[in-house]
Write a sequence for this structure.
């Protein structure tokens, strides 16, 4: 053993588990009076926010929540959702933010599979949550968020309201980091290709590093003003609850992602950064004159899911908003790949800029490996911009694995790389570009829809003999599900009935928008030729 | 065990040891043509720099250097010194950058204690190195740097010149991260309070995190242009070789830190960032008209060691340079504490701004703990701005420990905190302010001088009965050593002889500038009252 390995062990002075929990007490100590969270007319300073998060942790602990317990939250981008990103892990518990667009069946499945001990739920969603809890069939602690800024209409379902819970808590609750940076910090369900969603587990180390990676990638200075257009239930808002806190910024909440309120927030609060699917950009660009506000400062917009077209980029630039294109999946904490910009590209024609920016790009500085390779052999494809392969990632911002699903975890990590399931090419300059998704995911308004899940429902309809669902390009939503259906002999049904049947049996946003009847194109071995259907959907 | 701990282990897909070695291949891949290193008329792109670092690693490996071996470098801020920060650890070896101002005795001690297997040395220092190697008395591989941009005059001592060594190396050498992020990356000797310097060991995790911390603290965007005024042999240049590389910036080298070349580099290369002791600021402000250049862009200057006075801050602002005040020690990778600025302070009178900025501040975001506490009990002092205590730090940017010195390591980490040895107070807003140094360190021109080391030499002079060395404030150097001497009865000696004697027996810069003869003030128990001497030195 060389001398550098002797008598130089880790100890309390020189080693602390990495955790984004460290960011909050530091920011509260250094900038106690700085505005932390804005929600309409409501605002808290960093000192107050830290106190509220300690109260949340303390009150949950007093009610029996402890290390390794799951706390689910069903809420839009409001202060409680933000506070849960700190208050829940501060007691060693695991945050499970639920997609508010999911149906009762799926929510019941997630609460069951994730073993939620607590559900904090915004009254807006009381109807679907009530149904989910009935289905769940076991008692859990339910805490209502009765947001005075909500439109109203929902009902309280739980034992206590969120603000009353905080009042129970101890403002001096001892803030504790995890004993190990590999401990779970959150659980995010992804719509997989099979019927049931998979629970992606994040650890403290990865959450810390992705937060840091966002700062480095975006070149963030102190005090960013961040508008919450991206749902926090998507990959923990791409880790921005932690990122913005580390930089002592301000979180501007938003219950509804609509053009008017977004413009108003940007103008009023001098928002510097926001994220969202391309539909948010389109919403901004399509806004009416009375919704728009003049923006006289630089705004940065991070987008993913689909490459921004040239016209959109130009219009965004005209509106004073610079677009950064990133790529990621739930399994990699949100963004893990960025189309890192080259200054010299600024002088190219806008169409050429758009072509360059439409590429997903290169690994985040905190990610270690990115490649396009043969899906079976993991042999990298040539960097010729033509040879298709699967996209693989590795490094510290790759999930811990899938909860209670060792087979899926093993499969996802086979060969020491995370298998994204996305297909793409590798350009000569090392930038990757997605070309297709191997797992038949349709991305509609930033939400993933599994075509297989939709097909499963269609097959349950008594008139359906065969069904295939593909993405249909859509100006507003990016893509929408389009169903191709072969009916059983003598069966007769209309498109509207099929769509209604789907809406009854899954989340509304997953239901097909278009239904086309007729024989399905098949290979000689009987496999449905989806690429033919994609062409038809695009043309039709 | 809760489900989050089952079947969710670390593997090659989701865990990579943190190391700044990751930054170089990424930057070389994303920005291959971007200028990486400038040295006079010489420049390399990031692709070339990566190749050169691989060649260095490969050539050293071929000559038998391996994991855990020490590679010492004696050089000013030139490309080889920078490249050693990547090429040496890339083969698992440990970089030991030597302070070029040290004397042969101390260098021989360091090469011996650090077990250097290789010495890469700039010809400028051949005289002192020749003497050190003779003293060392064992053969090591010596590699000369014969920099065409040097003033010349030195001689080659080694087997091979640096560029010839690189030519031996393999440009495709496989870049390997350490198998464990706790492995040593570098060794930095600090002048301790006892005669021999201590070898501070840095690990890859800490180097990575401090690099990231610099980016976050300074709000660095992509492509900073960094001027190397701070020696890389000081705490690995405060980790900026790694920081700037992570952000795909440009390193502008500098053999001599002089006003003219600094202004010229700032103007010519549009330097955005530089670091240095206060003497560098004074040098800039005291520059003659013919040395100055107009600066029409924002320049950021990070300084440590002594608080910048109001006049200096104002003059720097007038010159277009914003000053950030940091604090650290070799043991914490350089800067670990920053006087985090509040925007509202901008509107205060400049004297008040200077008072606020003269405070050392708060912990870096990547450091976990900072406190002023009782040196014995580690009980934090009240935040009253008055009660003195010792400064303690803890977290991931605290050294691995002292090489082959478990007693000193244990002492430094007693109670789970790093004992800085610096004394200060804690203000109500949580900012610390240094008031004195408990270990009698004199900081002269940014270099630490141990008063005890100087006293040890003085005591060796036959005429000296008792000696005490304290810091004397100095307009140019910040502080200089001032010796107070009680002569033996009947002994007679002049100040000039004492100073000459010191210069012969230690590095020139450590020798006292002033010598005062007379009886030393002592306590009733015979302890020399240094605070009395400090007053006299300040007045005299």
């Amino acid at each position: 053993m060389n001398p550098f390995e002797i008598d130089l062990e880790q100890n309390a002075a020189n080693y602390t588990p990495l955790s984004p929990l460290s960011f909050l007490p530091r920011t509260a100590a250094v900038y106690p009076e700085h505005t932390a969270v804005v929600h309409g007319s409501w605002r808290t300073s960093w000192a107050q926010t830290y106190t509220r998060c300690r109260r949340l942790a303390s009150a949950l602990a007093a009610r029996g929540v402890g290390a390794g317990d799951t706390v689910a939250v069903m809420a839009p981008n409001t202060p409680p959702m933000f506070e849960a990103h700190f208050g829940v892990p501060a007691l060693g518990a695991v945050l499970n933010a639920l997609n508010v667009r999911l149906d009762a069946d799926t929510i019941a499945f997630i609460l069951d599979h994730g073993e939620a001990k607590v559900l904090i739920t915004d009254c807006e969603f009381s109807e679907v949550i009530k149904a989910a809890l009935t289905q769940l069939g076991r008692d859990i602690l339910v805490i209502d968020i009765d947001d005075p800024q909500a439109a109203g209409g929902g009902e309280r379902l739980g034992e206590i309201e969120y603000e009353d819970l905080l009042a129970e808590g101890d403002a001096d609750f001892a803030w504790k980091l995890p004993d190990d940076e590999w401990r779970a910090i959150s659980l995010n369900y992804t719509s997989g290709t099979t019927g049931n969603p998979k629970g992606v587990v994040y650890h403290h180390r990865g959450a810390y590093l992705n937060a840091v990676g966002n700062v480095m990638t975006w070149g963030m200075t102190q005090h960013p003003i961040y508008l919450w257009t991206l749902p926090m239930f998507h990959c923990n808002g791409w880790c921005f609850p932690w990122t913005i806190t580390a930089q002592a910024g301000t979180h501007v909440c938003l219950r509804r992602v609509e053009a008017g309120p977004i413009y108003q927030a940007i103008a009023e609060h001098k928002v510097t950064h926001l994220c969202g699917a391309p539909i948010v950009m389109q919403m901004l660009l399509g806004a009416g004159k009375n919704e728009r506000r003049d923006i006289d400062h630089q705004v940065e917009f991070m987008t993913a899911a689909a490459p921004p077209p040239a016209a959109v980029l130009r219009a965004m630039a005209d509106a004073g908003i610079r677009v950064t294109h990133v790529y990621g999946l739930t399994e990699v904490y949100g963004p893990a790949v960025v189309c890192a910009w080259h200054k010299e590209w600024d002088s190219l024609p806008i169409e050429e800029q758009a072509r360059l920016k439409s590429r997903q790009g290169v690994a985040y500085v905190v990610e270690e490996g990115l490649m396009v390779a043969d899906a079976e052999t993991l042999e990298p494809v040539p960097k010729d911009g033509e040879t298709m392969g699967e996209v693989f990632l590795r490094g510290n911002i790759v999930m811990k694995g899938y909860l209670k699903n060792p087979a899926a975890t093993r499969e996802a990590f086979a060969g020491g790389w995370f298998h994204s399931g996305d297909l793409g090419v590798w350009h000569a300059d090392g930038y990757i570009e997605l070309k297709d998704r191997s797992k038949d995911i349709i991305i509609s308004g930033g939400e993933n829809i599994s075509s297989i899940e939709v097909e499963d429902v269609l097959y349950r309809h008594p008139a359906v003999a065969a069904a295939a669902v593909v993405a249909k390009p859509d100006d507003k939503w990016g893509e929408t599900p389009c169903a191709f259906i072969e009916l059983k002999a003598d069966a007769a049904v209309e498109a509207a009935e099929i769509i209604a049947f789907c809406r009854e049996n899954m989340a509304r946003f997953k239901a097909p928008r278009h239904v086309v009847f007729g024989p399905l194109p098949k290979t000689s071995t009987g496999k449905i030729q989806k690429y033919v259907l994609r062409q038809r959907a695009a043309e039709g």
Notes: The radius of gyration of chain B is 23 Å. Chain B is about 30% helix and 25% strand. The CA atoms of residues 59 and 168 of chain B lie 6 Å apart.
